[in-house]
Design a protein that fits this description.
MetI-like fold, extended, mainly alpha, 429 residues, 3 strands, 65% helix, 17 helices
Amino acid sequence: MSKQNPSRETELVRASLKKRYAREQRFQWYGRIAVMLGFVFLFILLADIVTKGSPAFTQQYLKIPVDLSHDALDLGELPNEQELRRGDYSGAIKSSLRDMFPEVKNRSQKKQLYRLVSIGGEYQLRDAVLANPSLFGGPVDVWLLAHSEAASYLKGQISRDTPEIERRVKDLQMDWLDRLQQEGRTESRFNFLFFTSGDSREPELAGIRAALVGSFYTLMVTFLVAFPIGVLAAVYLEEFAPRNRLTDLIEININNLAAVPSIVFGLLGLAVFINFFELPRSAPLVGGIVLSLMTLPTIIITSRAAIGAVSPSIREASMGIGASKLQTVFHHVLPVAMPGILTGSIIGMAQALGESAPLLMIGMVAFIMDVPGGVTDPSTVLPVQIFLWADSPERGFTEKTSAAIMVLMGFLILMNALAIYLRKRFELK
Protein backbone atom coordinates (compact mmCIF):
# COMPACT_ATOMS: atom_id res chain seq x y z
CA MET A 1 0.00 0.00 0.00
CA SER A 2 1.63 3.20 -1.18
CA LYS A 3 1.81 6.27 0.93
CA GLN A 4 1.39 9.83 -0.41
CA ASN A 5 4.29 12.21 -0.27
CA PRO A 6 4.03 14.31 2.97
CA SER A 7 5.17 17.43 1.12
CA ARG A 8 2.41 16.89 -1.46
CA GLU A 9 -0.21 16.62 1.31
CA THR A 10 1.10 19.82 2.89
CA GLU A 11 0.82 21.67 -0.42
CA LEU A 12 -2.77 20.48 -0.89
CA VAL A 13 -3.72 21.59 2.62
CA ARG A 14 -2.09 24.97 2.08
CA ALA A 15 -3.90 25.45 -1.25
CA SER A 16 -7.20 24.50 0.39
CA LEU A 17 -6.57 26.93 3.23
CA LYS A 18 -5.65 29.65 0.76
CA LYS A 19 -8.95 29.21 -1.12
CA ARG A 20 -10.85 29.11 2.15
CA TYR A 21 -9.25 32.35 3.35
CA ALA A 22 -9.89 33.96 -0.04
CA ARG A 23 -13.59 33.06 0.15
CA GLU A 24 -13.73 34.48 3.67
CA GLN A 25 -12.11 37.70 2.53
CA ARG A 26 -14.54 38.01 -0.40
CA PHE A 27 -17.48 37.43 1.92
CA GLN A 28 -16.24 40.15 4.29
CA TRP A 29 -15.89 42.55 1.38
CA TYR A 30 -19.41 41.72 0.20
CA GLY A 31 -20.64 42.62 3.67
CA ARG A 32 -18.63 45.87 3.74
CA ILE A 33 -19.92 46.85 0.29
CA ALA A 34 -23.51 46.09 1.34
CA VAL A 35 -23.15 48.25 4.46
CA MET A 36 -21.52 51.05 2.46
CA LEU A 37 -24.30 50.95 -0.13
CA GLY A 38 -26.89 51.07 2.63
CA PHE A 39 -25.23 54.16 4.12
CA VAL A 40 -24.95 55.79 0.68
CA PHE A 41 -28.64 55.27 -0.07
CA LEU A 42 -29.59 56.45 3.43
CA PHE A 43 -27.43 59.56 2.99
CA ILE A 44 -29.02 60.30 -0.39
CA LEU A 45 -32.50 59.91 1.09
CA LEU A 46 -31.77 62.12 4.10
CA ALA A 47 -29.97 64.72 1.97
CA ASP A 48 -32.94 64.89 -0.42
CA ILE A 49 -35.42 65.30 2.45
CA VAL A 50 -33.32 67.94 4.22
CA THR A 51 -32.65 69.85 0.99
CA LYS A 52 -36.34 69.97 0.09
CA GLY A 53 -37.60 70.54 3.62
CA SER A 54 -35.18 73.19 4.92
CA PRO A 55 -36.86 76.12 3.07
CA ALA A 56 -40.12 75.36 4.91
CA PHE A 57 -38.54 76.54 8.18
CA THR A 58 -38.25 80.11 6.86
CA GLN A 59 -40.94 82.55 5.76
CA GLN A 60 -40.75 85.60 3.53
CA TYR A 61 -42.32 88.90 4.56
CA LEU A 62 -43.05 92.03 2.51
CA LYS A 63 -42.96 95.54 3.98
CA ILE A 64 -46.08 97.31 2.70
CA PRO A 65 -47.11 100.92 3.55
CA VAL A 66 -50.78 100.33 4.40
CA ASP A 67 -53.29 103.16 4.80
CA LEU A 68 -55.18 102.47 8.03
CA SER A 69 -57.41 105.51 7.91
CA HIS A 70 -61.14 105.17 8.57
CA ASP A 71 -61.87 105.70 4.86
CA ALA A 72 -59.47 102.95 3.77
CA LEU A 73 -60.90 100.49 6.32
CA ASP A 74 -64.49 101.61 5.68
CA LEU A 75 -65.02 102.50 9.35
CA GLY A 76 -66.15 105.45 11.38
CA GLU A 77 -63.71 108.01 12.77
CA LEU A 78 -63.79 106.54 16.30
CA PRO A 79 -64.46 102.82 15.93
CA ASN A 80 -64.67 100.48 18.90
CA GLU A 81 -62.99 97.07 19.12
CA GLN A 82 -65.84 95.24 17.43
CA GLU A 83 -65.86 97.70 14.55
CA LEU A 84 -62.09 97.45 14.19
CA ARG A 85 -62.46 93.70 13.94
CA ARG A 86 -64.83 94.11 10.95
CA GLY A 87 -62.61 96.55 9.05
CA ASP A 88 -61.84 96.04 5.36
CA TYR A 89 -58.18 95.12 5.83
CA SER A 90 -58.03 93.16 2.59
CA GLY A 91 -59.18 96.21 0.64
CA ALA A 92 -56.64 98.40 2.43
CA ILE A 93 -53.79 96.04 1.48
CA LYS A 94 -54.91 95.89 -2.15
CA SER A 95 -55.22 99.67 -2.33
CA SER A 96 -51.71 100.06 -0.87
CA LEU A 97 -50.28 97.63 -3.43
CA ARG A 98 -51.91 99.59 -6.26
CA ASP A 99 -50.38 102.78 -4.87
CA MET A 100 -46.93 101.17 -4.75
CA PHE A 101 -47.21 100.01 -8.37
CA PRO A 102 -49.29 102.67 -10.18
CA GLU A 103 -48.39 101.22 -13.58
CA VAL A 104 -50.68 98.27 -12.89
CA LYS A 105 -53.94 99.00 -14.69
CA ASN A 106 -55.76 95.98 -16.08
CA ARG A 107 -57.59 93.35 -14.06
CA SER A 108 -55.22 90.47 -14.85
CA GLN A 109 -52.19 92.40 -13.60
CA LYS A 110 -54.04 93.45 -10.46
CA LYS A 111 -54.80 89.80 -9.65
CA GLN A 112 -51.12 88.98 -10.05
CA LEU A 113 -50.19 91.93 -7.85
CA TYR A 114 -52.57 90.92 -5.05
CA ARG A 115 -51.06 87.40 -5.03
CA LEU A 116 -47.76 88.79 -3.72
CA VAL A 117 -49.29 88.96 -0.23
CA SER A 118 -50.77 85.95 1.55
CA ILE A 119 -54.49 85.76 2.18
CA GLY A 120 -53.53 85.63 5.85
CA GLY A 121 -52.07 89.13 5.56
CA GLU A 122 -55.45 90.74 6.26
CA TYR A 123 -55.86 88.73 9.48
CA GLN A 124 -52.29 89.53 10.44
CA LEU A 125 -52.98 93.24 9.87
CA ARG A 126 -56.25 93.05 11.79
CA ASP A 127 -54.57 91.41 14.78
CA ALA A 128 -51.84 94.07 14.72
CA VAL A 129 -54.41 96.88 14.82
CA LEU A 130 -56.39 95.18 17.62
CA ALA A 131 -53.20 94.69 19.62
CA ASN A 132 -52.14 98.31 19.05
CA PRO A 133 -55.13 100.58 18.24
CA SER A 134 -52.79 103.57 17.87
CA LEU A 135 -51.94 102.22 14.39
CA PHE A 136 -55.42 103.19 13.26
CA GLY A 137 -55.66 106.54 11.52
CA GLY A 138 -52.87 106.79 9.01
CA PRO A 139 -50.33 105.06 6.74
CA VAL A 140 -48.12 102.55 8.53
CA ASP A 141 -45.34 100.30 7.22
CA VAL A 142 -46.39 96.74 8.03
CA TRP A 143 -44.52 93.47 7.47
CA LEU A 144 -47.03 91.12 5.83
CA LEU A 145 -46.61 87.43 5.06
CA ALA A 146 -45.76 86.79 1.41
CA HIS A 147 -47.73 84.34 -0.70
CA SER A 148 -46.10 80.93 -1.05
CA GLU A 149 -45.49 81.47 -4.77
CA ALA A 150 -43.80 84.82 -4.19
CA ALA A 151 -41.84 83.29 -1.30
CA SER A 152 -40.58 80.47 -3.51
CA TYR A 153 -39.07 83.05 -5.89
CA LEU A 154 -37.50 85.04 -3.04
CA LYS A 155 -35.98 81.80 -1.69
CA GLY A 156 -34.36 81.13 -5.07
CA GLN A 157 -36.48 78.08 -5.87
CA ILE A 158 -37.79 79.50 -9.15
CA SER A 159 -35.54 80.64 -11.98
CA ARG A 160 -36.26 83.20 -14.67
CA ASP A 161 -34.76 80.79 -17.19
CA THR A 162 -37.81 78.55 -16.79
CA PRO A 163 -40.46 79.37 -19.42
CA GLU A 164 -43.22 81.52 -17.93
CA ILE A 165 -45.92 79.04 -18.90
CA GLU A 166 -44.24 76.36 -16.78
CA ARG A 167 -44.14 78.37 -13.52
CA ARG A 168 -46.77 79.96 -11.31
CA VAL A 169 -44.75 83.12 -10.66
CA LYS A 170 -45.06 85.33 -13.74
CA ASP A 171 -42.48 87.74 -15.12
CA LEU A 172 -44.35 90.79 -13.82
CA GLN A 173 -44.46 89.34 -10.33
CA MET A 174 -40.72 88.68 -10.48
CA ASP A 175 -40.12 92.29 -11.50
CA TRP A 176 -42.22 93.56 -8.61
CA LEU A 177 -40.46 91.27 -6.13
CA ASP A 178 -37.04 92.35 -7.44
CA ARG A 179 -38.07 95.96 -6.93
CA LEU A 180 -39.24 95.29 -3.37
CA GLN A 181 -36.02 93.42 -2.67
CA GLN A 182 -33.90 96.30 -3.94
CA GLU A 183 -35.83 98.73 -1.73
CA GLY A 184 -35.20 96.55 1.32
CA ARG A 185 -38.86 95.62 1.65
CA THR A 186 -38.33 91.84 1.86
CA GLU A 187 -37.24 89.85 4.88
CA SER A 188 -36.74 86.20 5.76
CA ARG A 189 -37.82 84.98 9.21
CA PHE A 190 -38.07 81.68 11.05
CA ASN A 191 -41.38 79.95 10.29
CA PHE A 192 -43.04 79.80 13.71
CA LEU A 193 -46.40 79.25 12.03
CA PHE A 194 -45.23 75.80 10.96
CA PHE A 195 -45.25 74.71 14.62
CA THR A 196 -48.06 76.91 15.99
CA SER A 197 -50.86 76.63 13.41
CA GLY A 198 -53.05 73.87 12.03
CA ASP A 199 -53.57 72.81 8.45
CA SER A 200 -54.59 75.33 5.79
CA ARG A 201 -55.41 75.48 2.10
CA GLU A 202 -52.64 78.06 1.74
CA PRO A 203 -49.12 76.57 1.99
CA GLU A 204 -47.63 79.60 3.76
CA LEU A 205 -50.25 79.33 6.54
CA ALA A 206 -50.19 75.54 6.99
CA GLY A 207 -48.66 74.06 10.12
CA ILE A 208 -48.35 70.80 12.02
CA ARG A 209 -49.59 71.80 15.47
CA ALA A 210 -52.97 70.07 15.10
CA ALA A 211 -51.26 66.94 13.76
CA LEU A 212 -48.71 66.93 16.59
CA VAL A 213 -51.40 67.24 19.26
CA GLY A 214 -53.47 64.56 17.51
CA SER A 215 -50.44 62.26 17.39
CA PHE A 216 -49.84 62.84 21.11
CA TYR A 217 -53.41 61.94 22.06
CA THR A 218 -53.40 58.92 19.76
CA LEU A 219 -50.11 57.58 21.15
CA MET A 220 -51.30 58.22 24.71
CA VAL A 221 -54.38 56.06 24.12
CA THR A 222 -52.23 53.45 22.37
CA PHE A 223 -49.81 53.25 25.29
CA LEU A 224 -52.49 53.15 27.99
CA VAL A 225 -54.25 50.28 26.22
CA ALA A 226 -51.39 48.27 24.72
CA PHE A 227 -48.71 48.41 27.43
CA PRO A 228 -50.57 46.95 30.44
CA ILE A 229 -52.47 44.39 28.36
CA GLY A 230 -49.36 43.36 26.44
CA VAL A 231 -47.13 43.00 29.50
CA LEU A 232 -49.75 41.11 31.53
CA ALA A 233 -50.43 38.79 28.60
CA ALA A 234 -46.70 38.13 28.27
CA VAL A 235 -46.36 37.44 31.99
CA TYR A 236 -49.26 34.98 31.94
CA LEU A 237 -48.08 33.13 28.82
CA GLU A 238 -44.49 32.92 29.99
CA GLU A 239 -44.92 32.23 33.71
CA PHE A 240 -48.40 30.88 34.49
CA ALA A 241 -50.02 29.42 31.35
CA PRO A 242 -49.97 25.61 31.09
CA ARG A 243 -48.16 24.11 28.12
CA ASN A 244 -50.94 22.63 26.02
CA ARG A 245 -52.49 22.95 22.57
CA LEU A 246 -54.53 26.00 23.52
CA THR A 247 -51.52 28.06 24.59
CA ASP A 248 -49.62 26.83 21.52
CA LEU A 249 -52.50 28.05 19.35
CA ILE A 250 -52.49 31.41 21.14
CA GLU A 251 -48.74 31.82 20.62
CA ILE A 252 -49.03 30.99 16.92
CA ASN A 253 -51.83 33.51 16.47
CA ILE A 254 -49.88 36.22 18.29
CA ASN A 255 -46.89 35.64 16.01
CA ASN A 256 -49.17 35.69 12.95
CA LEU A 257 -50.84 38.93 14.07
CA ALA A 258 -47.44 40.63 14.11
CA ALA A 259 -47.24 40.04 10.34
CA VAL A 260 -50.77 41.15 9.45
CA PRO A 261 -50.84 44.26 7.20
CA SER A 262 -51.69 47.36 9.20
CA ILE A 263 -54.61 48.30 6.95
CA VAL A 264 -56.45 45.16 8.16
CA PHE A 265 -56.49 46.65 11.67
CA GLY A 266 -57.97 49.80 10.16
CA LEU A 267 -60.77 47.76 8.60
CA LEU A 268 -61.35 46.10 11.98
CA GLY A 269 -61.56 49.49 13.68
CA LEU A 270 -63.98 50.78 11.04
CA ALA A 271 -66.25 47.74 11.36
CA VAL A 272 -66.17 47.26 15.13
CA PHE A 273 -65.40 50.52 16.92
CA ILE A 274 -67.08 52.97 14.53
CA ASN A 275 -69.93 51.03 12.88
CA PHE A 276 -70.82 48.74 15.79
CA PHE A 277 -69.88 50.69 18.94
CA GLU A 278 -70.53 54.04 17.17
CA LEU A 279 -67.42 55.74 18.52
CA PRO A 280 -66.60 59.13 16.90
CA ARG A 281 -64.85 59.06 13.54
CA SER A 282 -61.50 60.73 13.05
CA ALA A 283 -60.88 60.74 16.81
CA PRO A 284 -57.66 59.88 18.68
CA LEU A 285 -59.68 57.51 20.87
CA VAL A 286 -60.48 55.18 17.95
CA GLY A 287 -57.08 55.71 16.36
CA GLY A 288 -55.32 54.83 19.60
CA ILE A 289 -57.37 51.65 20.08
CA VAL A 290 -56.68 50.54 16.50
CA LEU A 291 -52.95 51.21 16.86
CA SER A 292 -52.89 49.42 20.22
CA LEU A 293 -54.29 46.28 18.54
CA MET A 294 -51.54 46.55 15.95
CA THR A 295 -48.86 47.13 18.60
CA LEU A 296 -49.96 44.41 21.03
CA PRO A 297 -48.22 41.48 19.23
CA THR A 298 -44.91 43.38 19.20
CA ILE A 299 -45.15 44.19 22.92
CA ILE A 300 -46.18 40.65 23.85
CA ILE A 301 -43.41 39.00 21.82
CA THR A 302 -40.64 41.31 23.07
CA SER A 303 -41.91 41.14 26.66
CA ARG A 304 -41.98 37.34 26.59
CA ALA A 305 -38.45 37.29 25.23
CA ALA A 306 -37.28 39.64 27.99
CA ILE A 307 -39.02 37.61 30.72
CA GLY A 308 -37.71 34.34 29.32
CA ALA A 309 -34.16 35.71 29.33
CA VAL A 310 -34.20 36.24 33.12
CA SER A 311 -31.89 33.75 34.82
CA PRO A 312 -33.68 30.78 36.44
CA SER A 313 -31.51 31.29 39.53
CA ILE A 314 -33.46 34.46 40.36
CA ARG A 315 -36.72 32.52 40.36
CA GLU A 316 -35.20 29.66 42.36
CA ALA A 317 -33.69 32.00 44.96
CA SER A 318 -36.98 33.83 45.43
CA MET A 319 -38.97 30.61 45.73
CA GLY A 320 -36.32 29.21 48.07
CA ILE A 321 -36.89 31.94 50.68
CA GLY A 322 -40.63 31.35 50.68
CA ALA A 323 -41.95 33.83 48.08
CA SER A 324 -45.04 32.85 46.14
CA LYS A 325 -45.08 32.50 42.38
CA LEU A 326 -46.85 35.86 42.03
CA GLN A 327 -44.36 37.59 44.34
CA THR A 328 -41.46 36.04 42.47
CA VAL A 329 -42.73 37.30 39.11
CA PHE A 330 -43.67 40.85 40.12
CA HIS A 331 -40.95 41.53 42.70
CA HIS A 332 -37.96 39.86 41.02
CA VAL A 333 -38.53 38.69 37.44
CA LEU A 334 -40.33 41.75 36.06
CA PRO A 335 -37.81 44.33 37.41
CA VAL A 336 -34.98 42.40 35.79
CA ALA A 337 -36.88 42.04 32.51
CA MET A 338 -38.09 45.65 32.48
CA PRO A 339 -35.27 47.02 30.24
CA GLY A 340 -36.21 44.61 27.46
CA ILE A 341 -39.93 45.19 28.00
CA LEU A 342 -39.56 48.96 27.79
CA THR A 343 -37.34 48.73 24.74
CA GLY A 344 -39.84 46.57 22.89
CA SER A 345 -42.75 48.76 23.97
CA ILE A 346 -41.11 52.00 22.83
CA ILE A 347 -40.13 50.44 19.50
CA GLY A 348 -43.74 49.32 19.09
CA MET A 349 -44.92 52.86 19.89
CA ALA A 350 -42.47 54.28 17.37
CA GLN A 351 -43.91 51.92 14.78
CA ALA A 352 -47.42 53.13 15.68
CA LEU A 353 -46.30 56.76 15.38
CA GLY A 354 -45.33 56.21 11.75
CA GLU A 355 -48.50 54.38 10.70
CA SER A 356 -51.04 56.01 8.40
CA ALA A 357 -52.93 53.20 6.59
CA PRO A 358 -55.12 52.07 9.54
CA LEU A 359 -55.89 55.67 10.46
CA LEU A 360 -56.99 56.47 6.92
CA MET A 361 -59.63 53.75 7.22
CA ILE A 362 -61.20 55.30 10.33
CA GLY A 363 -61.49 58.78 8.83
CA MET A 364 -58.44 60.56 10.25
CA VAL A 365 -57.70 61.78 6.72
CA ALA A 366 -60.14 64.68 7.18
CA PHE A 367 -59.01 68.30 6.74
CA ILE A 368 -58.44 69.47 10.34
CA MET A 369 -57.58 73.10 11.11
CA ASP A 370 -58.44 73.28 14.81
CA VAL A 371 -56.20 71.79 17.47
CA PRO A 372 -58.02 68.88 19.22
CA GLY A 373 -58.81 69.43 22.88
CA GLY A 374 -59.26 65.78 23.83
CA VAL A 375 -59.29 62.18 22.63
CA THR A 376 -62.83 62.45 21.24
CA ASP A 377 -62.32 65.59 19.13
CA PRO A 378 -61.79 65.33 15.35
CA SER A 379 -58.08 65.07 14.69
CA THR A 380 -55.35 63.94 12.36
CA VAL A 381 -51.83 62.64 12.95
CA LEU A 382 -48.47 63.56 11.50
CA PRO A 383 -48.12 60.68 8.98
CA VAL A 384 -51.61 61.38 7.61
CA GLN A 385 -50.82 65.11 7.42
CA ILE A 386 -47.74 64.24 5.38
CA PHE A 387 -49.90 62.08 3.11
CA LEU A 388 -52.35 64.96 2.56
CA TRP A 389 -49.62 67.50 1.79
CA ALA A 390 -47.81 65.10 -0.55
CA ASP A 391 -50.99 64.91 -2.64
CA SER A 392 -51.23 68.72 -3.01
CA PRO A 393 -49.99 70.25 -6.30
CA GLU A 394 -48.70 73.55 -4.84
CA ARG A 395 -44.92 73.87 -4.58
CA GLY A 396 -45.23 75.24 -1.05
CA PHE A 397 -46.71 71.95 0.16
CA THR A 398 -43.76 70.03 -1.31
CA GLU A 399 -41.34 71.64 1.11
CA LYS A 400 -43.89 71.38 3.94
CA THR A 401 -44.11 67.63 3.26
CA SER A 402 -40.34 67.18 3.55
CA ALA A 403 -40.21 69.39 6.65
CA ALA A 404 -42.94 67.33 8.33
CA ILE A 405 -41.01 64.16 7.46
CA MET A 406 -37.97 65.67 9.16
CA VAL A 407 -40.03 66.36 12.29
CA LEU A 408 -41.45 62.82 12.24
CA MET A 409 -37.98 61.31 11.84
CA GLY A 410 -36.78 63.46 14.73
CA PHE A 411 -39.51 62.05 16.98
CA LEU A 412 -38.67 58.49 15.91
CA ILE A 413 -34.99 59.06 16.69
CA LEU A 414 -35.90 60.51 20.09
CA MET A 415 -38.12 57.53 20.91
CA ASN A 416 -35.39 55.06 19.98
CA ALA A 417 -32.86 57.08 21.98
CA LEU A 418 -35.27 56.99 24.94
CA ALA A 419 -35.51 53.21 24.60
CA ILE A 420 -31.71 52.91 24.70
CA TYR A 421 -31.45 55.28 27.67
CA LEU A 422 -34.10 53.46 29.72
CA ARG A 423 -32.56 50.08 28.96
CA LYS A 424 -29.12 51.27 30.09
CA ARG A 425 -30.49 52.90 33.22
CA PHE A 426 -32.48 49.85 34.32
CA GLU A 427 -29.53 47.59 33.52
CA LEU A 428 -27.34 49.68 35.85
CA LYS A 429 -29.93 49.34 38.64
